[in-house]
Amino acid sequence: MSKKVITREEWERKLKDVKIRKEDMNKLVMNFLVTEGYVDAAEKFRIESGTEPDVDLATITDRMAVKQALQSGNVEDAIEKVNDLNPTILDTNPQLYFHLQQQRLIELIRSGKVEEALEFAQEELAPRGEENQSFLEELEKTVALLAFEDVKNCPYGELLDTSQRLKTASELNAAILTSQSHDKDPKLPSLLKMLIWAQNQLDEKAAYPKINNLTTAAVDDPAV
Amino acid sequence: MPSSAVTNRPEEVTARLGVGGGAAQGEALLKALREVKNQIIGNKTKKLLYLQLGAVPKIVSVLAASVASSLGGAGLEDAPVIVQAAAAIGSFACGVEDGVRAVLDAGAVPHLISILSHHDDKVVDAGARSLKMIFQSKMAPKYDVLQDKNLNFILSLLDSDNENVTELAACIIAHSCETNEEQKALCDAGVLQRLVSLLGGSSNQKDACLECIKAVVKDNSEVSSRFSCIGNGKALKALSDLIQDRYPYTRLLSCKCLIAIGHASPSYVEELQIKTKLVLVLAELLEEPGRVGDEAPFSLKKLIADNEELHKQALSINVIEKLCNFLHMSSIQSRRLQGILLALSELCSKLEKCRCQLLSPQVYSLNLEVRVLDLVIDSLEHDCAEVRAAACICIRNITRSLKNLSAGSLSNEAVVIRLVQLLYDPSSSIQLVALGALCNIIVICASRKSVLIRCGGVSQLVRLSTSMDSTLRLKSLSVLRNFLFLANTTDKECILKELSLHTLVSLLNDAEHSIQEQALALVNNLIDGCSSVEHIFTEKCYSLILDAVTRQLKQASSLGVCIQGMFVLSNIAAWSDFDKDSVTDYLIAYDDNHKPSLAIKFLQSNDKSLRLASLWCLLNLTNPSSAGSSRRVTKLQTAGIIFQLKSMLNDPCSDCKLRLRMVLEQCTEFETSQA
């Protein structure tokens, strides 16, 4: 079956016909800034575009303080802050709480405080493993770090990456958003996913100017 | 942990808590409270430790003191202390039973309630959150909504602008309304209207309100109908819209609400259309992770219960396939597995189509060797009792498929063996369902009988037939009866040996007439196909059994007993002359009170099956090929039986009419030959 070919001209004509309201685009941007926690950007954007954020910017500030504390490796501080924000979050999210405790251990290991790390693992993390079998595997991995001289290059070394901090921070951020009845995922990435999916679907039926580079949104000529 | 001048060990922190004495004050007290709170949140071990150290009463006393001084206008310093104390108390009540108890015993609730009207939002939030934790526990006291004062208080909470407070109100109501009276009181007070308007709020508030609405309308037809009338159906519409909500949990909760309303007052959610939509939504929710996917099958089962039309709908949208796909997953959580098995059981309970689909080869896993049926059979051995019970019910319903039983699709030794294992289960409800399944299997699958004997099933069945529990006696007896259906001599002898005469006679004389009936049917199956008593019973056995049978016939405790008893006599009446004579004597005997004889009484019965059974008996007794038939006819004549028969010539039942004529023909032959 031969595919239909849509030229760049045709495509651009079709694109021109699609009416998207500026307000909706703004809402998407604001939603992204708010969910990801970019308070200053959100504030500036509010002033410039007149778009109202769907949450009180003050709550974002609190949430961002938590995120920042965690991203700088200050887990205890992050825990205290989230408990001030809403004490029920960590009480009702055992997996998140475990990951935060795990992060504390990782930070202790990173700063070479082996004695303290061992004590912490024994007093704080071991009981978590007892309370919930599914945590044991991750717990073992983390504690195993203590056995290695060159921690950064050992089998579970990736736990020491900043990516691990970011992962935990993201989990914590999502939990806070859920407790505030806010969507934990911004809409923009989902829209991009839908774009890719739609293009894949269309690929089977037609050759058309396609976006291959999501960062530039440049449209490539249809492959013939 | 960083070192500081003051240590943070639990014992020392606890020592700083409290009012007066050695307790800390001001900033130090605040710090101590914060320390406890941060140590215990999320940490069960620390909660238990602090509980043992007696921290809770101390914290509650601090709360009480701060609240009192705050009310006295002493000022802003109290707010932070109240917030921290309340948060700590709430955390103690989260997920730890001892914690809830300690919090309740220390009298925290009234103080927490009093801060709900504090001017500082943070204080109100703290109080509301903690109370919500407490009221989410089963151990929390029920709030007496029948008292006006209390009801008004709840209503005021529902009117609050603060979402934590409205959610708390919804939580308290859901926790406290159990009786119809309470539900009505809440409805009368306008709670439902308020909850519906709150459905427009944030998603957490929506969820809390949905749970609350369900609690208020559940099993209460008056309240459910009134709900459906709110805003001329606007409330129902709001719920229907929510089944398409973006959040799966909200969709599930609104489905549950609609199902509850539909069950309590059918006319309002009767339309097949809405119910079909619910089936679709729940079918999708089956695939959600976490608690939504775990609970969805239970709601689905409730929705379609006993409704063939909905079973068909579910079948048409491939629900069975969806459910079966989960069975193939290697690590499925017990609760979800239980739900899926129950949903499958419901679907297989009535429609043959559903059973066939489940058993059909198309419903395969990636590993083609594994059949769905085998996965269900495996679940019969699951660690979790609820899963075992659900798997058992599923098997029992599948075995209602006559077609598949005969085709041998269910001819799997493992089924029988596992079911017999369940006969030893500590739970009698599981035993009952296992018996139900065996009852079905054993009728058609003659080959399964040997398995049953081999794995000790017969012994256990006999043991259960002497159980104190009458339902167990009844069901196990039914299995034995079915076992004996068309059984060969070896099998009959096996049963008799295990059952023993003593047990059989005591079952024939059981207090429950349903059990008498099954015992009689069992005897029938024993003697069926025999041409004389020696084939099956010794002389002694026989007379004891016959005594019991005739005694029950005289007592006539139920229709079923009479019918089965007459079948026994009919069978015996096909034996020797001697036997026929005994039967005749029983039938025509009457006592001094001039009550009619058994024969007359049964022939005059309104029930056609009983009349028919009696006619069969007479047919055998008056069989011309038997030598003593003529003298028996005379006896029957003298006893007025022939006269009775002649009066029945217009019997409404055609079967009866036919046998009646045959009997009369046979009798007339003798009359003519005598004449």
Automatic annotation (TrEMBL), chain A:
<dbReference type="InterPro" id="IPR006594">
    <property type="entry name" value="LisH"/>
</dbReference>
<dbReference type="Pfam" id="PF10607">
    <property type="entry name" value="CTLH"/>
</dbReference>
<dbReference type="InterPro" id="IPR024964">
    <property type="entry name" value="CTLH/CRA"/>
</dbReference>
<protein>
    <recommendedName>
        <fullName>CTLH domain-containing protein</fullName>
    </recommendedName>
</protein>
<dbReference type="InterPro" id="IPR013144">
    <property type="entry name" value="CRA_dom"/>
</dbReference>
<dbReference type="InterPro" id="IPR006595">
    <property type="entry name" value="CTLH_C"/>
</dbReference>
<dbReference type="InterPro" id="IPR050618">
    <property type="entry name" value="Ubq-SigPath_Reg"/>
</dbReference>
<dbReference type="Pfam" id="PF08513">
    <property type="entry name" value="LisH"/>
</dbReference>
<feature type="domain" description="CTLH">
    <location>
        <begin position="59"/>
        <end position="116"/>
    </location>
</feature>
UniProtKB/TrEMBL annotation, chain B:
<dbReference type="InterPro" id="IPR011989">
    <property type="entry name" value="ARM-like"/>
</dbReference>
<dbReference type="GO" id="GO:0043161">
    <property type="term" value="P:proteasome-mediated ubiquitin-dependent protein catabolic process"/>
</dbReference>
<dbReference type="GO" id="GO:0005634">
    <property type="term" value="C:nucleus"/>
</dbReference>
<dbReference type="GO" id="GO:0034657">
    <property type="term" value="C:GID complex"/>
</dbReference>
<dbReference type="GO" id="GO:0005737">
    <property type="term" value="C:cytoplasm"/>
</dbReference>
<keyword id="KW-0677">Repeat</keyword>
<keyword id="KW-0963">Cytoplasm</keyword>
<dbReference type="Pfam" id="PF00514">
    <property type="entry name" value="Arm"/>
</dbReference>
<dbReference type="InterPro" id="IPR038739">
    <property type="entry name" value="ARMC8/Vid28"/>
</dbReference>
<dbReference type="InterPro" id="IPR000225">
    <property type="entry name" value="Armadillo"/>
</dbReference>
<dbReference type="InterPro" id="IPR016024">
    <property type="entry name" value="ARM-type_fold"/>
</dbReference>
<protein>
    <recommendedName>
        <fullName>Armadillo repeat-containing protein 8</fullName>
    </recommendedName>
</protein>
<keyword id="KW-0539">Nucleus</keyword>
